[in-house]
Amino acid sequence: QKEVEQDPGPLSVPEGAIVSLNCTYSNSAFQYFMWYRQYSRKGPELLMYTYSSGNKEDGRFTAQVDKSSKYISLFIRDSQPSDSATYLCAGGYQKVTFGTGTKLQVIP
Amino acid sequence: DSGVTQTPKHLITATGQRVTLRCSPRSGDLSVYWYQQSLDQGLQFLIQYYNGEERAKGNILERFSAQQFPDLHSELNLSSLELGDSALYFCASSVGSGGGQETQYFGPGTRLLVL
Hints:
The complex is a heterodimer. Chain A is mostly beta strands. Chain A is built from no helices and eleven strands.
C-alpha cells in the first residue's frame, strides 16, 4: 500500500466549476501536508501548505486536512483553463511523500 | 522560475550506458533532493544531500549514485541503464536540512529516454 493515494484522473470540468481533489494517506506520523501543481513538462510548484488538521484558504484555493480520517482535500473555486495541470498531494514528517497526482482539465 | 536549474533537459541513451544529471540549487539553499517521476510510480524520492553530506535515502537503486559538491551543486549518476530507467528526473532544493516542514523548490527536470 502506498503511503499517499490519489485518484490519477483525468478529471474534466467546465470553466467556472468547483473542483474537489482528494488524497488519503496511511502514515499517522504526517504533520505537514502540501499540494503541488505541475504543468505539463514542468517541475512541481508548491501551491498550498498546511500543518496538522484544519483548513487553509488562498484566493480560489482551499486546502483541507482531516487527520482523524487521514484525508487531504484541495478545492478550487471558479476553475479556470489555466488551472489545467496535475495536482500532487504530499504528506511529511521527517521526509515528504508524494501521491501520484491527479490530472485536471478545465474546459473553456 | 523556481531558481533551481537542471541540465541537460533531455537525454537519449542506450541500455548499459552511464549518464550524469546536474542540478544547481536556489541561491542560499543547502539541501538538494533527487526524485524520479514515471507515469505509473509518480514522484519517487531518491536521495537528499545537505551541505555536502548525504542526509536521507529513498528508493535509490545501487546502480544510481549522487553527490553534492562544495559549491552545493549536485550530480546524479545513473549507470548500467535499463529501459525501465526512462523517466523524468527532478532536482529540488530547500533552505535547511529538510524534514517534512520545509518547502522544496523543484527544477524543470531532465527527461531521460533509454533505448
